[in-house]
Amino acid sequence: MTSGSNTRQRGAFASVTTLFFAWGFTTVSVDPLIASLKAIFELSWPEVMLTQFAFFMAYAIVSLPAAALVARLGYPRSIILALGIMIAGCLCIPLATHLDTFAIVLLALFIIASGITILQVAANPLAALLGPPARSHLRLTLSQAFNSLGTTIAPYLISSVILAGGIFAVPGGAAATAAQRTESLRHIDFAFLVIAAMIALLALFIWSVRARLSRAAAAGEHDRARDGTVNASGSLRSLAQALRSGWAVLGAAAIFLYVGAEVSIGSTMTNFLSRPDVFAVSLEHAGKLVSLYWGGAMIGRFVGSGLLTRVRAALLLAAAAALAALLCLTVTQAPGEFAGWAALSVGLFNSIMFPVIFTLTLERSSASGAATSGLLCMAIVGGALLPRLVGKIAEVAGLRAAYVVPLLAYVCIGAFALAAARARVLRQPHAAPNAGH
Question: Which of 63, 280, 310, 408 has its CA 20 to 30 A from that of 201?
């Protein structure tokens, strides 16, 4: 590869990395939105958890069509289309609040998540292509760090907008007026209009560098074809092949449980921390504290990257899962602020789970890497289903008791890790895909 080609690919990679930040920021904006919608629409926990159901069902429904779309349109046009869909979803939020209809909020979130799904299907392999094959892991890890930066910043900024003023300024026990409720709805509008504007600017930027992206991706694909490596864009295979592999199915179950546990904790964290028997703070303050949960995941990815050079991946995953389970048990039993800090600390141990589960599964699956990856990505639908279960338990027994769901999920992930430590490795994956949410 020539120095000019290297320069073009570095510039293209820098452009693609901004996408990881954008979808991380947008995805985690749903966490403070849940607390806001629950109060404004006076929803039960099972009802408000439909937000995550609508959001993460997009991964199950859109992933396979998205792969075909990217193969047909190419990377730049697929990315721009994905950003356009995200903008459309954000603009549906003001329509939903104007009509005062929670169902339209759910539709808007599904549209946003559909755009994010297409974006991930395009951006992950593109990031792997933009440079030497031997450094694919490094590029994906760096991109994931920017995704984590977005997930860390979003709860603080969005909570400052949608959990301040309006009905959230009403003293405890007093009834909110219609004007205060309308004010809170307008705050949601403002937050998502700002997100739409941010995404629109990003779309214009990607459009301006589309030719560079196309040339750089073509050069990367040429190098992999010349070197005999797998083209990262050719990832659509029959899921039937993956379902015939026991390890592919086990890995998909582990991803399902991990994403479900992480999303369930993040979704309920704002309301949990604000409780009188935990931190006893306002919803706005509690929403800002959720940044520590996602920030722990960001720090953990850097620390975990170093530990993985010294510790077997399966054993590190087992340790992380055990500690996460212990923290969830602490939340169910510990009094006061100690439970709150335990809940926030789970994020640190979530950090390595997705990439390590992905890699361990790819190494042991008897199905092709593409087929296995497709099944694992579809398993992200756990973020839609487990929060619904958590909501049902929270409604009946309270938020503390609901932590038994992520506790059991982490126990199962630990069992998966220990089994992987004893299983035979069939292949070394070229690069483990990264997903942000």
Answer: 63
Q: Are residues 285 and 183 in the same domain?
A: no
Between CA 341 and CA 331 the distance in angstroms is 9
Residue 437 is assigned to a structural domain of this protein: no
| C-beta separation of 25 from 150 below 8 A | yes
Q: What is the pTM of this model?
A: 0.88
58-91 pLDDT, tens per residue?
Answer: 988 998 888 888 888 888 899 999 999 999 999 9
Q: Which of 188, 204, 232 is the last residue of a domain?
A: 232
- The domain of 38 spans 1-232
Count structural domains, the chain: 2
325/417 same-domain check = yes
Say which CATH number the domain at 180 has: 1.20.1250.20
pLDDT tens digit sequence for 21-33: 999 999 999 999 9
CA dihedral 365, 367, 369, 374 (to 10 degrees): -100
CA distance 324 to 175: 39
Query: Does residue 255 sit in the same domain as residue 116?
Result: no
Give tens-digit pLDDT for 148-158. 899 999 999 99
CA distance 256 to 39: 29
Nearest alpha carbon to residue 162 among 175, 181, 140, 137: 181
pLDDT tens profile 256-307? 999 999 999 999 999 999 999 999 999 999 999 999 999 999 999 888 888 8
Alpha carbon distance 368, 365 (integer Å): 7
Alpha carbon distance 263, 406 (integer Å): 10
The H-assigned helical ranges of 334-368 are 336-350, 353-364
